[in-house]
Amino acid sequence: MTPALQQEIQVTGKLFIGGEFRAAVSEKTFEVTNPARESHLMAVSEGAAADIDLAVKAAQKAFSEGPWPKMSAAERGRLLWKIGDLLLENADELARIETLNNGKPIFESRQIDLPAAAACFHYYAGWTTKIHGETIPVPGNFLNYTLREPLGVCGAIIPWNFPLLMAAWKLAPALATGNTVVLKPAEQTPLTALKLAEILRQAGLPAGVVNIVPGFGPTAGAALVQHPGVAKIAFTGSTEVGKQIMREASGTLKKLSLELGGKSPNIVFADADLDAAVRGAITGIFYGKGEVCMAGSRLLIEQSAHDAFMEKLVERASKMAIGDPLHPKTRIGALVSAAQMNKVLGYIDAGNREGARLVTGGERALVDGKGYFVKPAIFDGVANSMKIAREEIFGPVLATIEFRDLHDAIEQANQTMYGLAAAVWTRDIKKAHRAARALQAGTVWINNYNMLDAASPFGGYKMSGFGRELGQHALDLYTQVKSVWVDLSE
Ligand code: ADP
What we know:
Helices cover about 40% and strands about 20% of the residues. It is α/β, with parallel strands linked by helices. The chain has helices at about 5-10, 50-65, 65-70, 75-90, 90-100, 105-125, 165-175, 190-205, 215-225, 240-250, 275-285, 305-320, 340-355, 385-390, 405-415, 430-440, 475, and strands spanning about 15, 20, 30-35, 40-45, 135, 140-150, 155, 180-185, 210, 230-235, 255-260, 265-270, 300, 355-360, 365, 370-375, 375-380, 395-405, 420-425, 445, 465, 480-485. Adenosine-5'-diphosphate (ADP) binds next to helix 9 and helix 10.
């Protein structure tokens, strides 16, 4: 890394607890790297059970005492709005940090992640004053009403693919509903969360309302899940870890929301606008280097359109700009780590061994002699039963599967344990909506891919998890309802 770049990483590599930056109780640190340069970025304090305990205590205190519980809903809304504004004011710096730490193209972090994170805070700022109970017409001489109350301390555990955006998805609704939070970022990518801590302080968020404890899953993460002072865990990550969290959370019967893996089908009918569908297939799988839970990793293509479609698709994929993630024209950045790159290359080997045809990409690439880059890979002739069609690869690898008709497409699309997202490309409005109903997925895109908005719910069917983040639905994840009975008899 050049000295100029090093200067741009002005992050306090410490835990953020009770409004202060502090070293870990153990005084241990861990290394954070730049995957595009295979270089050290900085050392960050390594939180573990003792730090989680301090963070939970700070969050408990902030929930029950001090300015936070006394704050009016409108004031809370103004605070959230301010956080959104500060994210936009600091967007260039935050995007650079995200790109240096995650390897994603600056185009994505600056044009998508940052505006979306700010929009999430702005969206939930509007909700604070609109969360209320109801009066219920019960029989007899009683008044019955409900109170919609926060849960208390919420634990948020997030992955490395959208580090800042995932923090926003968890924090904004949790704070809008009056909770306090302990956030554990992924060990690979803690830097933007720590920068966010500075922004929260600058916005005037009271001490202890949000605490940020970087560290590893089995230590810091597990301690948060098991802590009796934590009311709820909101988790985004792999299905395997999601299952483990569900087991670990059962000891204290925590509320859970899990946003897990996917193997989303992207279905192209022969009557679609094929150029638009090619663009959609490309962004569907290669956006974010394919390290995206909703990636369109299974391309289902109608037999009669297969040849024409594949020709256009392969041509476009082979021309995608792999390069320095900080370059504005780069569209394929570095995978997040050597481990992730090796996992992805392992799946490419498996695809070859199973008899699928690799028609483009699939090998490691270096940029200026370094980096965990993998060329966008497309497999043709894939059967839905193959490993590369069944398992979440979390990398730039597309499995192409042919289908005969709508019935066959839906059957193959649903033949997966996952159900996060799906897309359909067709000019036939009836077929599109019939498919949307039949697909077992939390999000269905018709003639587009990857659309998201803070106002629209997002989450999984089947083993892609449960609970809906974003939109009005996320308010349910962070509130509980109390029924109050008043005797009005004379
Ligand atoms: P990915 O496959 O995207 O790396 P993981 O599911 O492994 O996703 O990790 C997502 C998040 O879950 C990370 O913050 C990680 O540290 C955390 N994590 C991993 N294992 C556990 C665990 N046993 N308990 C709690 N959190 C965990």
